[in-house]
Amino acid sequence: xxxxxxxxxxxxxxxDNLQRACGLVREASAKGAKLVxxxxxxxxxxxxxxxxxxxxxxxxxxxxxxxxxAKECSIYLIGGSIPEEDGGKLYNTxxxxxPDGALLAKHRxxxxxxxxxxxxxxxxxxxxxxxxNSFSMFDTPYxxxxxxxxxxxxxxxxxxxxxxxxxxxxxxxxxxxxxxxxAHWELLQRGRAxxxxxYVATVSPARDEKASYVAWGHSTVVNPWGEVIAKAGAEExxxxxxxxxxxxxxxxxxxxxxxxxxxxxxxxxxKK
Length: 272
Fold this sequence. Notes:
alpha/beta, six-stranded mixed β-sheet, single chain, seven-stranded mixed β-sheet
């Protein structure tokens, strides 16, 4: 099946972001994509100073638009993420809609991005956001898909549990920056893919040098062999790739790590 990653240029005008995102979703659907994914914080600038002003309830304006365009195009739409307000708390939240427009999954970013690299970048999502507390998976006629958001990708245990639960594709809307992007963006994706013998796709906003937080870009798809099979540059674009589940099955048969794990010696478990 065909997967499309929309590397959107995100502006400060929410209505423009929504309109352009929906237009690119329609374009991807017209080119045969069955699963379409948007980037992290696709409807607002990324930054702790923006989350409160742009936050919405779910359902709300942005998710209603996503539901409508998923139904119109009869696709599975991974709605990147938006700042969500619920019960006085803010979350970084990804919604997924099916071909009938129904909400299939809602993933709140589990691991908040609090880092300090002296002389390069300091950022604390926890100043404004609360963490999610659950894994998020959804079924399609093609395969089971696991969700994470950006920093979630650094935590190998999360991907391993998705693999144990039968996911064959992991999708991470993410906005790595100009420090962590060149160092770890591709490396982490390849690691998650080869460790668990599944496909990993990441969806970044396009790079905007004038933004307060500059995203690395380079939305990417990695196959279960750890090979990069599709990759964007820094600009706004749509990346297409065909996900070959037969290849996944062949790799797992050739190197059967999933059946050869020593579960009598170690294990990773989902607690809730």
